[in-house]
């Protein structure tokens, strides 16, 4: 069973989020387990303080290194190892690639949440990596840890009820997802694209692929530029990025025409 451990001053965040929806069901089914280490339990102070004024002056408080490092060490021993990620706006920007890597490389994920004006720099030496969920500042690392935890956990075997959905989704190959529709076929005058109602699997697959590519081009041009070299000639033709190669006439049969990249075009497209 895979384990996720949150190191935080606010365990309430995790009990709420991990107890419901898909995570809650995965925990109930026994495929996922989570724990929370309360940093305050490792305070050396009789007032249970975990923060102090910054050396050099300035506003706000900084999280002290002793309780944080002791809490991280406790989490590491509880998880018998595991990858330790400190949530901080100074970290690497979290992406689906990080989620995939973390889901593969670790049986236990330990997410450490900072608070106040930041964490004493010396804590960095006790974590494996530092991550941010985006270029904005939250009041603490808890929401960021939940985002990372959710994105990683859902890739662990058995966490999602339907494993296929983890593969066929936005970002699994880098492209944005194609548009999805369900009943009714017409909603307030807006009809579902007819190709989805035709029952022709090949045409549906081709339409979806083109939609993914076009949507990425429109909405995420920087991602599109990055992925452009991965498109096949056929896909570039489908999406109008490349002119259609001249069609080769066949003398016999009527079973489809080979295009110049060797792919068959369905008869109905001739
Ligand atoms: N802590 C505060 N802001 C954060 C962010 N954007 N990502 C990760 N941790 C944070």
Structure notes:
The structure is a single chain. With 270 residues, the chain is α/β, with parallel strands linked by helices. The chain folds into two domains: 2-164, SPOUT methyltransferase, trefoil knot domain (Alpha/beta knot, 3-Layer(aba) Sandwich); 186-269, Trp Operon Repressor, Chain A, CATH 1.10.1270. The protein has helices spanning 12-18, 21-29, 65-78, 96-105, 142-153, 164-167, 201-219, 221-227, 233-238; strands at residues 2-8, 32-38, 51-52, 62-63, 83-93, 108-113, 129-132, 186-187, 190-191, 257-258, 264-265. Strands 2-1-6-5-7 form a five-stranded parallel beta sheet, sandwiched between helices. A hairpin with a 2-residue loop joins strand 8 and strand 9 (190-191). Helix 4 packs across helix 5 (142-153). It is elongated. Mean pLDDT is 90; it is low at 256-270. Residues 87-89, 114, 132-134, 136-138, 141, 144 line the site of adenine.
